[in-house]
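Quarterly update from the structural biology core.
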Amino acid sequence: MPDFLTFRKFDTAEEAIAISDLLKEKDIPVMLENTPVLLDQQLIGQQFENTFLLKIPPERFIDADNVLRAAVSFNEQDIEADYYLLSFSDQELQEIIEKKDEWGAYDYALALHLLEKRGISYTPAQLAGLNDQRHQQLAKPENGSAVWIAIGYMSVLIGGLLGFFIGGYIIVAKKTLPDGSRMYAFPDITRKQGKYILILGGIAFPLWAWYVIQGGSVPGFNSLMNLLANLRY
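Predicted structure, tokenized:
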């Protein structure tokens, strides 16, 4: 059985099923997964809806994207007068074209249409070039890794368990690109630090656990918790 990765996320089952049926018609294997809300509304005081994940084999991402975009058709007269894209500036519409992975097939097609009406058009070669640039941009390792490294090492000093998990996360974390390919989320130099944090955390936790069992306390724990509470990502 091929591996399946998340291709799209939906807020409603109806929308997820509709897209799933469309892809199945084109012989693209599909899995639908419902991710339930883990926290009770009465406990957190806020309501969250379930998320429906549509998963397909990663090698079919481009095929599925082409299917969805080919299925888009609209009549200009049917566009609602207050549809939000109609108020977008040229620059905002161009950003949709440059970052089509962040937008649905309908909005992407409508943005192209609106720009063409305003005298801005793209050739197939230009669109392909923008897609390549976007892919290269997304393929860059994530920023902010220094924050995770700092937290990981500080966690080692106050017990090691949190540092153990942070180190493991830094080592194995991956992200999925729009074409279905997968890559490590952090650069090699950061993942190397994650390995050190993982090892140190694995050594420190048993030592600190023994120390606490013997009646000691963990110095700096409250200070680290205050730091994490005030951290801005």
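Residues 1-71 form a domain with the Alpha-Beta Plaits fold (CATH 3.30.70).
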